[in-house]
Amino acid sequence: MRAPALGWQLVLAFALSLLVLVGLIGWLQNVHILTANGMYKSIQAEPWIADPATARLDPSNYLYFPLYGALCRLLDALGIQRGVPWKQLAYINAFWASLCIVFVYAFVHRVTASARAAALAAIFHFGGGFFLLLAVISEDIMPGYTLVFGAMALAGLWFDRPSHARVAIVGAVFTLGWLIEWRLMFPTLPALLLALSLSGGPALRRVGYIVVLCVAILVVSGVVQLLWDGHNGAVGLHDLLWTGKGVASGWAGVSWHKAWMMLSGIGNSFLIMGGFTDPLAARHLAFPLSVSVLLQGAIFVVAVAMLWPQRADRRLRAIALVFLGTLGVGEVFNFYAQPQDPQMQINVMPWLTVAWGLLAATLLTTSHRPRALLFLAVLSLAPLVWNGTQLARWRGGDQAALAALAAIEKRFPPDSTVFVYWGFEPITVWQYSLWSRTWDWDGAAPVGPAPAADPKFKWIAVNAGAIRHPDWTAEQHAASIKRDIDQALDRGYRVVVSDVWNWSAVELAGQLGGLSAAARAPAIYHMLHDDYRAQPVFSDPTVGTYYELRRR
User: Were both Cys, which of 132, 184, 462, 549 would link to 178 (CB 3.0–4.6 Å)?
Assistant: First the structure.
């Protein structure tokens, strides 16, 4: 029986991936698993859906909002989740994730000439922890990641014997990817440059290829900049190349707390184990997270051992430089930023899929017994089974959040209530989105005396000073929170605080450790508990307990 042509194999890979992901989204009914950042992105996308001519460009997501605005309008026209962009974004992500699976299949098939190895690699990648997660929620990384992965795959195939045209194509695809999400530039660009510099041939020719890559990046960026010139929020080429997103904020910086968060990020990127939010949670789950990391290490060691006899192969060397180079540079960058974040880890971890695909091809070549294929198929499916089971724990989360929001509004009239939150509670995103698009006070209380209907959502975030004011002392941070609370009480508002009230100083330090601000915990803790008292007044299984705050 003749094997189907590669084109049909790719169509089948796309169709099956999309079918499974769409079914999973509908079954889970929760497009905010682990992170509600996609809700904010859907709010930013609303002007691009309603009136693209006046919508504002975001320098760090220059192509994302125009692209997703157009795709949301398409879904509206098709009657798919019409008028609910925060759900539509998940379905669009499923499309891009399915396209990424096509890239994985085509890449491994081209390298190994094995449809079986390509299928095993595609299944393995599909089931990876953060890939599967980001394919079924509304986070914004998937389209940019898919294009950057495509550029990496092309570089792995072509940079063993590069040509000017091939290098230019890689640069163009890569640039379109990071123009969707600016931070995607940094882990992969050094790896591409390294692969070209070691591609063989005269040194002058290699320098020429590097120049072509840089020119391609600048030309594509420049064309995009010119096409949007004059639009609301448009920036110049320099500001497009360097937006500074995340720099000089609480997310930036190096500390030992981030070692635990790195363990969380790398471990969960393969097998979802938990411990996503802070160093303390990752420390409590150190063993299962370490198991996931050790399994990845085992795949790496076995792949290297089996492929070592082919170390002189120029294509294999190019693949290693691109994918392992991205891993190395990316994890250094992540350690400075947010190593636990799925969207920070997904683009530096595809080396694992490549290693698995090459390993599978080698094993299938050396062993022609059906048992070998069955064994590899089971192992390739294992991450999908595990991670799918883990995601099921959050099933129905969106409806539960809406029900909790209605209960909160009934218990605490918004016109006379100010909420004190840690700042990352998922319910805050729902209040922000569906009550009023107002940020936390952060030292400025833009409300008059109670009751005040506008804005509907009035809140204070404990973590605001760590995020926006990394130069503050602990005392300044604590004083800012106290000033906000006192202003709310002085103006006649009822002040209620979330479960952050029950955190110990150690737990608060663990949470602040993710923002390089653990040293601020004692001052903030003592300010809250020395100056105020609180008693429980409301409890909900989705959002926890609320306490009413009063001065001592």
Answer: 184
d(CA 470, CA 130): 29
Phi and psi at residue 190, to the nearest 5°: -60, -35
Amino acid symbol at 338: Q
For the chain, state the CA radius of gyration. 25
Average pLDDT over residues 478-497: 97
The CA-atom distances, in angstroms, between 386 and each of 129, 372, 510 are 9, 22, 28
**Whether the model pTM is above 0.85:** yes
Q: Which of 392, 409, 430 is the last residue of a domain?
A: 392
Report d(CA 345, CA 374) in Å as an integer: 30
pLDDT band at 246 (very low <50, low <70, confident <90, very high): low
Q: How many separate domains does the chain show? A: 2
Provide the 3-class DSSP secondary structure of residue 462.
coil
Q: How far apart are CA 508 and CA 506, in angstroms?
A: 5
Answer for the pair 508, 287: CB distance below 8 angstroms, yes or no. no
Question: Are residues 488 and 415 in contact, defined by beta-carbon separation less than 8 angstroms?
Answer: no
The domain containing residue 464 runs over which residues? 397-551
Spatial separation of the C-alpha atoms in residues 483 and 515, rounded to whole Å: 22
DSSP label at residue 251: T
Q: Of 352, 377, 392, which closes a domain? A: 392
CA-wise closest residue to 531 among 469, 492, 474, 489: 489
CB atoms within 10 A of CB 448: 10
Amino acid identity of residue 538, one-letter, is F
CA distances from 244 to 60, 225, 247, 257, 468 (A): 8, 17, 5, 23, 14
Closest CA to 398 of 127, 63, 92, 29: 29
pLDDT band at 250 (very low <50, low <70, confident <90, very high): low
